[in-house]
UniProtKB/TrEMBL annotation:
Residues 8-158 form the N-acetyltransferase domain. Keywords: Transferase. GO terms for molecular function: acyltransferase activity, transferring groups other than amino-acyl groups. This is GNAT family N-acetyltransferase. It holds the Pfam family Acetyltransf_1. The keyword Ion transport does not apply. The keyword Transferase applies. The lineage of its organism: Bacteria, Pseudomonadati, Bacteroidota, Chitinophagia, Chitinophagales. InterPro entries: Acyl_CoA_acyltransferase, GNAT_dom.
Amino acid sequence: MNMNSMNTSYRSARLTDAEELTIMSMELYNEVVNRKDFTENRIVASLRFYEENSNMGEVLMLEYNSRLAGYAIVFRFWSNEYGGLILGVDELFIRKPFRRLGIAKTFINSLISEEKNNPLFAGVEMEGHADNDVANKLYASIGVPKNNNSFYIRLFKR
């Protein structure tokens, strides 16, 4: 996936991006109150997983005017409920100096636009935290309504 729109571009992350991805991932987790207990950063493991399983998703670097502005983790899964593949955005992070420039909105709209040109998915799923008002307003403004389903996750210790 390599999309361009005005000043914003997206490319697949590479192992050479690991340091920047780690920094941005920690910035994301430090901003989200209920994720401050994350002491182990797993972004490099995610990058390696998607390099080996590209059919399941990818880590994308988001650039604005050729400068690194953020990242997104995009994944794909089959939904029986919606009758097809769902394109999911697990993490979408924009660095503070690049916020309110329309980068996140352009990114999501590009995913939706690409789908219209090459139908493959039944829908798009955006992950967000209930207390992230900015993200909630963004999703609503581009026609991605809040889903009433709740998610319950039990982690298996390794």
